[in-house]
């Protein structure tokens, strides 16, 4: 699977997110998770300037790859991603372990609610259990594109992806029963 193939990536991730309530949960909680990871990674300095850290590097990597995948949507979300990194670093520098504590709490809550969303609405394990790197990279962009799609962005892409997601999800369901147990063929 080509990492920069937007349609292919959206079909992969979308196959695990077909129920509107689960998508809404992700739209709310994925940005919280991303912010928390930026704050936590801001403690790993790459230079003497505290803002040159792993969080900064990650925000630039995410932004660059999103722009490469979809230039317009990637460019629109880039300032938000960089702001999350800067704010995370600022809060970590100002509040230290208190900030880390509250981010830890928010991470537990956000991950928990998303797992519940998958169990209750999708009746399927999340994408990260099949490919954690791909899921962690794609989740923020997926939810951003879901929001843009709701606003009418690139309807032809949304339609193509939706059709492929339905096909892929049917194939996934055929391989496993709704209870998650692999069917014998």
TrEMBL record:
The keyword DNA damage does not apply. InterPro entries: Mpo1-like (IPR009305). Keywords: Membrane, Transmembrane, Transmembrane helix. The chain crosses the membrane at residues 23-45, 65-87, 99-120, 132-153. It holds the Pfam family Mpo1-like. The keyword Ribosomal protein does not apply. This is DUF962-domain-containing protein. The lineage of its organism: Eukaryota, Fungi, Dikarya, Ascomycota, Pezizomycotina.
